[in-house]
Specification:
124 residues, 4 helices, single chain
Length: 124
């Protein structure tokens, strides 16, 4: 994937992540790791690893196992809990809509654990 194309795709994912209700972004690990949280709970991280775009998302343990076995460009979360996180390197066998669905799943997993008050503040 060329560098310019990678930046465009990265920006599309950032826009999608920030469109989630109550989503906020920050760089707590430095400028290379763009973190996305809802009520201070992380649900995504975008960065570059080995000069390739990667996105790390929360996933149900069964999905982590399935996805890492099914796709060579998905691995257990890089520098994350290997049971609950996946790291995706976008490739030709993974579509934008697939990644957006996994972003939705990650967001849902995190928001399902929020307090009643926090959940009530999320505008759907």
């Amino acid at each position: 994937m060329c560098d310019e194309e990678s930046k465009v795709i990265r920006n599309e994912y950032i826009d999608y992540l920030l469109a989630k209700p109550c989503s906020e972004d920050s760089f707590p690990f430095g400028p290379e790791a763009h973190v996305f949280k809802v009520f201070n709970k992380m649900f995504a991280l975008i960065g570059y690893r080995n000069e390739q775009l990667s996105i790390t998302l929360k996933a149900a343990p069964g999905d982590v196992t399935f996805l890492t076995e099914e796709f060579t460009s998905i691995e257990r979360g890089y520098h994350m809990n290997k049971k609950h996180w996946i790291t995706i390197t976008p490739s030709s066998d993974i579509t934008v809509s697939m990644i957006e669905a996994w972003i939705d799943d990650s967001y849902s997993l995190v928001t399902s654990k929020l307090t009643k008050l926090e959940k009530s503040q999320i505008k759907k």
